[in-house]
Amino acid sequence: MKIIMLGAPGAGKGTQAKQIAGKYEIPHISTGDIFRANIKNGTELGKKAKEYMDQGLLVPDELTCDLVMDRIQQDDCKNGFVLDGFPRTIPQAEALDAALTKIGQKMDYAIDVDVPDENIVNRMSGRRACLDCGATYHIVSLPPKTEGKCDHCGSDLVLREDDKPETVQKRLTVYHDKTQPLIDYYKNQGILKSVDGTQPMEAVFTAITDILGA
Ligand code: AP5
Question: Which of 59, 105, 133, 203 is the most buried (most CB within 10 A)?
Fold first, then answer.
């Protein structure tokens, strides 16, 4: 099963993608996590990506597409994968389609987690992230067991640099401009499914598994 998670920054794509990956035993591929790992490790890619991410801008397609195309051709992806944060532009979607067509495959579902802008800024200011293992929390709706510490690896939790309100606004503008057109792109392919992302996390996951099947 090959799934794309669509939705505004903070809509809950990552939260749901992790659960989907667990239930259907497919890898969770988050371009945001890949870039953050590169930033943490001080790689050239990380240095370039950081310049864009800190401003709430998209990392250029040429730095992003090859990375994902390589990843989805690895062995663990042969039964499918869930893409979180990719594609984010029409050229990225076209590159993905072209790469899959070459190997006689196509995406099965694009799931749009729909959350209005007014809910997003609040959610993001309450998010806390572990930059070591990628786990995310929310100070109200999903608090860690020990304040400020990751449940999984014990590392310190941080407010992501790009989760500050002014950067979130910029990310929302970029989302509407560059990423929202993908909703029509996948509607036209007949694979778009929408879920109401304002519901509690468990209800969102149930809505998704109703779409994907047992
Ligand atoms: P990325 O990491 O992909 O950020 P994003 O898309 O902006 O998404 P987020 O991770 O911020 O949010 P999410 O939807 O996953 O929400 P989450 O589940 O954490 O990308 C970061 C940056 O990298 C981009 O801005 C860009 O610069 C660059 N980048 C990445 N991919 C790129 C690409 N393909 N091309 C170019 N550039 C790229 O949930 C948010 C919070 O809400 C959490 O605290 C969570 O606990 C809480 N929450 C989740 N669901 C619910 C719920 N139902 N009810 C209440 N709270 C909830």
Answer: 59
Q: Cα–Cα distances in Å, from 168 out to 118, 152, 180, 181?
A: 11, 27, 16, 19
The question of whether 171 is a catalytic residue gets the answer: yes
Residue % of the chain over a pLDDT of 90: 91
36 is catalytic: no
Q: Is 13's C-beta closer than 6 angstroms to any atom of ligand 1? A: yes
Find out whether the beta carbon of 127 lies less than 6 Å from any atom of ligand 1. yes
13 is catalytic: yes
Our measurement of the distance from residue 110's CA atom to the centroid of its chain's CA atoms, rounded to an integer in Å, reads 12
Identify the active-site residue in 36, 88, 123, 128: 88
Closest CA to 138 of 155, 151, 71: 151
pLDDT confidence tier of residue 121, bands split at 50, 70 and 90: confident
Is the pLDDT score of 178 beyond 90? Answer: yes
Q: Are 52 and 59 in contact (CB under 8 A)?
A: yes
Helix (H, G, I), strand (E, B) or coil at 141: coil
pLDDT band of residue 199 (cuts 50, 70, 90) is very high
The pLDDT-based confidence of 13 (bands split at 50, 70, 90) is very high
Ligand 1 centroid to Cα of residue 104, in Å, is 30
Q: State the DSSP code for 211.
A: H
Q: Tell whether the model's pLDDT for residue 89 goes beyond 80.
A: yes
